[in-house]
Amino acid sequence: MTKHLTLLLFIGLAFWSCEDEVEQDTTPPTEVTLWGVVYSIEDTDTLNLSNNDLTGSIPPEIGNLTNLTWLSLYGNQLTGVPPEIGNLTNLTYLNLKNNQLTGTIPPEIGNLTNLTILYLQSNQLTGSIPPEIGNLTNLTSLWLDENQLTGSIPSEIGNLTNLEVLFLGENELTGEIPPEIGNLTNLTSLKLIINQLTGSIPPEIGNLTNLTYLNLSSNQLMGEIPSEICNLTNLTYLSLYNNQLCPPYPSCIEDYVGEQDTTDCP
Q1: 33 within domain boundaries
Q2: Per-residue b/e over 53-68, b at no fewer than 16 CB within 10 Å?
Q3: Engineering a disulfide at 132: which of 2, 55, 107, 266 sits with its beta carbon 3.0 to 4.6 angstroms away?
């Protein structure tokens, strides 16, 4: 009888112990430790750790800082972006440029619908630009240049109608420039230099009448330049050289076309 009571007592204590552990596990954290520093989840809305010699992957725990509106980690030696970055839905500014980020851009970045500025340039990011980028309709600046991104420019880029700056240059992007780029009528700067883009320049480029900077050089663009490019009367910088664009060129830009490979032109 004594043995049975002892066993029941042990089972009861074990049950309550397990129940206590479950309750502890479900208690939401109030603090996050990042790179040896403790941050209050409730009180941290800005985090600037730029140029701090940080290394390794960005800790997934950063996704618990859900009140962040401004996050800058540029100029470190960080190597990875966790999908938990998509939890930071109050962010308006995200700067991860000039690191050593590898891997793909997580599709969860499409959750950050309040972003106005996104800097991911000068890293070693690979894979395609996720179509979820088209969810970021408040963006005014998108910098993905100087990476190793492949695949085509997603048509969803045309959803970003508030964009003023779009820099996708110095990657390994292929396919055609999507005609949806003509939706970006607030663009002032468009940089697609040094990719492997093919096909013709879409006539919809002529919708971008606020452009002052347009750089499509060093791709494999071919065919005739659409006459609609003459609508871009605010241009102060135009570079089209090192493509396969065929004459005759629109009179408005014929002095600025630069060297072209016309071997396959009719």
Answers
A1: no
A2: ebeeebeeebbbbeeb
A3: 107
> 24 lies in a domain?
no
What residues of the chain score a pLDDT lower than 70? 1-25
User: Is residue 32 packed enough to be buried (19+ CB in 10 Å), middle (13-18) or exposed (0-12)?
Assistant: middle
Q: Which domain holds residue 112?
A: 43-246
> Residue 214's domain is classified under what CATH number?
3.80.10.10
Count of domains observed in the chain: 1
Q: Is 244 exposed, middle or buried (0-12, 13-18, 19+ CB in 10 A)?
A: middle
Q: What is the pLDDT of residue 25?
A: 58
Residue 6 lies in a domain: no
Q: Quick one: pLDDT at residue 95?
A: 98
Query: What pLDDT shows up at residue 22?
Result: 45
What is the per-residue pLDDT for 20?
Answer: 47
**Token pair recorded at residue 251:** 């009179």
